[in-house]
Design goal:
five-stranded antiparallel sheet; 217 residues; globular; eight-stranded mixed sheet; 5 helices; alpha+beta; 2,3-Dihydroxybiphenyl 1,2-Dioxygenase, domain 1
Amino acid sequence: MTKLTGSEIAARTPDGWVYLLGTLNARLTTGDFATGLALVAAIGAAAEEADHHPDLDLRYTYVDVRLWSHDVDVVTGRDIRLATRISELAAEAGVALDPAGPSRVEMALDSPAPKAVAPFWAAVLGAEQRSAEGFGDEVRKADGTVPTVWFQESGDTEPRQHWHPDLWLDPSQVQPRIDAALAAGGTLVTDENAPSFWVLADPEGNKVCLCTWQDRR
């Protein structure tokens, strides 16, 4: 299966789906548990028919769906096809997709010795240490129960910030989040790397990056 680029995914996926951290995500706003349960059953039947299975998170008023091709660990055409089928099932059930709903958080550890500290974080989180061209060292748990930790080489001069979160959003949601953060007393540190990421800080200087798939390989 061929890996799709972010631009290809954005062009081919139905409205309401969001590409975050190598996966397709959707929030189906069911409004009640019974509707969500019935929709999960319908999605399950479609997944069995396609022999391709999404991660589903059933909540009281919504269902979150996450899709990627597990065997190659990227989004491929079969994910697009299943996303299209899930959107059809949602429409048949009168359920809308909310692109503002899905988001993913990963944690960045700024360290002068990332290779020395990565094994500790893999051990304490019960996760797998991974390294590959394009993303460097990271610690990831396959079931997604803890945020991925990635490592950014930094200087060792104190005081310095050791940790910062990366919040991955659909591109359409970035400006509303920036506006809300500024209204809440934050500052925009830099947008020189936009639309890949923006750096914001709270009133004490603690930083966060708002990230999108745009302008990445």
